[in-house]
Write a structure and sequence with these properties.
Residues 260-429 form the Inositolphosphotransferase Aur1/Ipt1 domain. The longest helix has 24 residues, at 292-315. The strands form two sheets. A five-stranded antiparallel beta sheet has the order 1-2-5-4-3. Strands 6-7 form a two-stranded antiparallel ribbon. The protein contains 21 helices and seven strands. Helix 9 (205-216) packs parallel to helix 14 (292-315) and helix 14 runs antiparallel to helix 18. Helix content is 56%, strand content 7%.
Length: 451
């Protein structure tokens, strides 16, 4: 008698294969197959699907049947390697590219309840599955390349559109460089390489947005929008945080200019160089080892902190402490960037790290707020997500170290550091409030599924 199983006709019903197999065997046991001898018999399920079964003399055939439920046909694993390692059944191949899954069916009685019979000749069912069925039912991982191709095909138009907008922006507006081309190539390769790298490329778009916004600041300098603050910031700093030495009031920056220590020069230089790497690495740690939503919370808070900082840049353009030391209170538009106190780090190490980095700084009037002080504070605010006390304490130490380095190096006033910390804290609170809006929360949930 020929059996037709409609559950095998659709891929989305694979999970019902154990139930389908169970009812097929139920029909066989109840009366559709009458051969209960020791000889093997074959019961075809379809033109391409056959089941070879041999049964021993069994006083309770239905007990044998229901025992098959303990050995499900459809494994929970997606790969053949994991499937082979299943303790409750084996997978075998033959020359015709068939996969044999041996179900460990045993009688429920006293003789067989506490021991395992290695010879499954008389108490087993061998189900022969042709290669085309085995590919659909057992080896889902083989379809990854095909699904990856379909995803790329569906998003091809979006890739072209995003590429056009990217190059139009940099070629005709912002100005293109080799760095922009390398970023584009890295992102494109990551997107088309595999599903995992594509998800990572979509996740890293948050930081790419930050880079694009930061790069766009040079198009409209903040000193063309608002008045530059030089003397007033200096006087407020001296009044609030000034110290007296030899009867003379001075800022902390001026004190450290006269009293610098080589060990602190190296320590502060190392801390300042990691103002972005450590927060970035921690966010990637959240992405890889915690949850994608934790990564999103951190990254979007980081982006929102920068947005608030950029707004303050345009509202209060301010000169750094080293500008007052070199040029006084006069506004000089053609002032190049300066390494200030970090020049000692370059001299001690013999590396022109800070000299080279700050010489490329086109706008020196962006001291308020100090984003160097903001980024480490974000790691403190989200440090509890790691569930590691030592790491959270390390973030607190790192944050205070960067704050001290900003003042010690004469790149920021204490006011700048406080403003940077307030930006991070405000962004953290604002992001939490925005997440309570249903529409924004749904967008974040959808983005979470993409990455």
């Amino acid at each position: 008698m020929r059996y037709y199983n409609p559950l095998y006709t659709r891929k989305w019903t694979k999970i019902f294969v154990p139930v389908s197999t169970f009812f097929t065997q139920l029909g066989t046991q109840v009366g559709f197959q009458t051969n209960t001898n020791n000889d093997e018999s074959t019961t075809p399920l379809s033109s391409e699907y056959t089941a070879n079964a041999s049964y021993g003399n069994n006083s309770s055939s239905l007990s044998t049947l229901f025992s098959t439920l303990t050995s499900p046909f459809r494994p929970s694993h997606k790969t053949l390697i994991s499937y082979k390692n299943r303790p409750n059944g084996t997978v075998k191949h033959d020359n015709d590219n068939l996969i044999y899954h041996q179900l460990d069916i045993h009688r429920i009685n006293d003789e067989n309840s506490n021991e395992k019979n290695n010879n499954m000749t008389n108490n087993s069912i061998l189900i022969d599955i042709p290669g085309n069925y085995s590919n659909d039912l057992l080896i889902d991982a083989d379809n990854n390349k095909h699904s990856n191709f379909l995803t790329l095909k569906e998003s091809f138009i979006w890739i072209i559109l995003a590429s056009l907008l990217y190059f139009i922006w940099f070629i005709f507006i912002a100005g293109i460089s080799i760095v922009h081309i390398l970023i584009y190539l890295a992102l494109l390769i990551s997107y088309i390489l595999s599903e995992r790298t594509r998800r990572f490329a979509l996740a890293i778009l948050i930081y790419l947005t930050y880079l694009l916004l930061y790069d766009a600041l040079r198009l409209i300098p903040n000193y063309t929008v608002s008045t530059i603050h030089i003397e007033d910031i200096y006087l407020i700093e001296k009044k609030l945080f000034g110290i007296v030495k030899n009867g003379h009031m001075m800022t902390l920056n001026e004190y450290f200019q006269q009293n610098h220590i080589p060990l602190l020069d190296v320590f502060t230089g190392l801390c300042y160089l990691n103002w972005i790497p450590i927060p970035l690495i921690y966010s990637l740690y959240l992405y890889r080892y915690k949850s994608k939503r934790d990564y999103m919370d951190f990254a979007f808070t980081f982006l929102l902190t920068n947005l608030l900082g950029f707004v303050v840049y345009y509202i209060i353009p301010a000169a750094p402490p080293w500008y007052v030391e070199l040029y006084g209170f006069e506004f000089n538009l053609n002032v190049p960037g300066n390494a200030a106190g970090f020049i000692h780090f370059d001299q001690i190490t013999g590396l022109k790290v800070f000299s080279s980095m700050y010489s490329k700084n086109a706008n020196v009037f962006a001291a308020i707020p100090s984003l160097h002080a903001a980024y480490p504070l974000i790691t403190v605010l989200y440090g509890s997500l790691s569930k590691k006390l030592w790491l959270h304490i390390g973030f607190v130490f790192f944050t205070f170290s960067v704050w001290f380095s900003a003042v010690y190096s004469r790149h920021h006033y204490v006011l700048d550091v406080i403003a940077g910390g307030m930006c991070a804290l405000t962004a953290f609170i604002l992001y939490r409030l925005l997440c309570r809006i249903p529409t924004i929360n749904r967008l974040l949930t959808a983005y979470n599924k993409l990455i």
